[in-house]
């Protein structure tokens, strides 16, 4: 009997030891699983942190206006008033005033073509009349030295790339109809047309237009930047005086001045720049409005602001990569 009891006690003791051992293993395994879970959480958190950091850096790059890669330079053709004014103002000339635009620049013969080319190319940069860019979402006008190109900044002089919009004619050669149309452009009503087209008044104190009963045809040629303004003024003028036909041909500033200097070709020419000495010797210039020249890029380009020195360097061919632009 005693032997049986001893045997039973021994069995109970063995089972107790086994149970304790199993509990210890379970606890250790549980601890191991908990550790793995914590490590997994740490790994996930680290990855998420990396992703968040990358996203923030990407946002910072966009906000900071960073861009990289080769710059595709777009310029206007020789004889363009916009180009002449741009290179002179920005300093893309040599000591004798000769145009030093980089040979690598892609040349476009018109404001519309420059805008179209730049709008389709994230790596490109160009320039165009402020009046043709305002309200055009296909391109982005950059601030220059921190100043946005607007009519107000052109008027107060804080925007540096600006120019006069001229018409020019031989003194004493204007027909009555041509003179009356010019009077309209310089009147309060005509100056308001300039503002509506995104330009700046040349005469903030202009008086109301005095209508005259005149007839005839007025022929105009020249700048593709001044042309849209003269055309818009012509449309408003014809509402007042429908007996005058106005024909506007946009052929470029130099061509317009050449036509104006010739006899009987046009009544007056248009130039989006100051007249050259040889032109002034023959023609009388008249500033009908002021304009800024906007430096434009594609809306996909993250840059928002550019220094005037960088613009100069780009068009001289000294800066060829966006990462070097300031």
TrEMBL record:
Indicate yes or no for the key word Kinase. Answer: no
Report the membrane topology from the UniProt record: Lipid-anchor
- What is the annotated localization of this protein? Cell membrane
Signal peptide residue numbers: 1-21
Compositional bias ranges of the Basic and acidic residues kind: 25-77
- Name the GO terms of the biological process aspect: phosphate ion transport
Q: Which GO terms describe its cellular component?
A: plasma membrane
Q: Which intervals of the chain are annotated as region Disordered?
A: 24-77
The organism's superkingdom is given as: Bacteria
What Pfam families is this protein classified in?
A: PBP_like_2
**Could you tell me which InterPro entries the record lists for this protein?**
PBP_domain, Phosphate_ABC_transporter
- PROSITE patterns found in the cross-reference section: PROKAR_LIPOPROTEIN
Q: What family does this chain come from, according to its entry?
A: Belongs to the PstS family.
Q: How does it assemble?
A: The complex is composed of two ATP-binding proteins (PstB), two transmembrane proteins (PstC and PstA) and a solute-binding protein (PstS).
PANTHER family to which the protein is assigned, alphabetical: PERIPLASMIC PHOSPHATE BINDING COMPONENT OF PHOSPHATE ABC TRANSPORTER (PTHR30570), PHOSPHATE-BINDING PROTEIN PSTS (PTHR30570:SF1)
Q: What does this protein do?
A: Part of the ABC transporter complex PstSACB involved in phosphate import.
Task: Give the protein name, as stated in the record.
Answer: PBP domain-containing protein
Q: What is the lineage of its organism?
A: Bacteria, Bacillati, Bacillota, Tissierellia, Tissierellales
């Amino acid at each position: 009997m005693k032997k049986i009891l001893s045997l039973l006690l021994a069995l109970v003791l063995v089972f107790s030891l086994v149970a304790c051992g199993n509990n210890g293993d379970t606890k250790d395994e549980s601890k191991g699983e908990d550790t793995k879970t914590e490590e997994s959480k740490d790994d996930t958190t680290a990855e998420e942190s990396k992703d968040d950091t990358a996203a923030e850096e990407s946002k910072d790059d966009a906000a900071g206006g960073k861009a990289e890669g080769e710059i595709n330079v777009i310029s206007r053709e020789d004889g363009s008033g916009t180009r002449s004014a741009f290179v002179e103002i920005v300093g893309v000339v040599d000591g004798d005033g000769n145009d030093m635009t980089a040979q690598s620049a892609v040349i476009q013969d018109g404001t519309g073509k420059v805008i179209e080319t730049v709008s389709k190319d994230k790596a490109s940069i160009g320039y165009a009349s402020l009046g043709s860019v305002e309200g055009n979402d296909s391109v982005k006008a950059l601030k220059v030295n921190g100043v946005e190109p607007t009519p107000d900044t052109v008027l107060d002089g804080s925007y540096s790339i600006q120019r006069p919009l001229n018409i020019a004619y031989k003194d004493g050669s204007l027909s009555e109809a041509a003179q009356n149309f010019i009077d309209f452009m310089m009147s309060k009503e005509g100056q308001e047309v300039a503002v509506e087209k995104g330009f700046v008044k040349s005469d903030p104190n202009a008086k109301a237009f005095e209508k005259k009963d005149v007839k005839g045809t007025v022929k105009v040629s020249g700048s593709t930047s001044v042309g849209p303004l003269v055309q818009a003024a012509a449309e408003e003028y014809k509402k007042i005086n429908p007996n005058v036909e106005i024909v506007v041909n946009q052929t470029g500033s130099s061509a317009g001045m050449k036509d104006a200097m010739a006899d009987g070709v046009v009544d007056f020419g248009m130039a989006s720049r100051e007249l050259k000495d040889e032109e002034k010797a023959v023609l009388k210039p008249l500033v009908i409005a002021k304009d800024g020249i906007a430096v434009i890029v594609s809306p996909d380009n993250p840059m928002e602001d550019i220094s005037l020195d960088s613009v100069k360097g780009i068009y001289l061919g000294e800066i060829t990569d966006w990462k070097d632009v300031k």
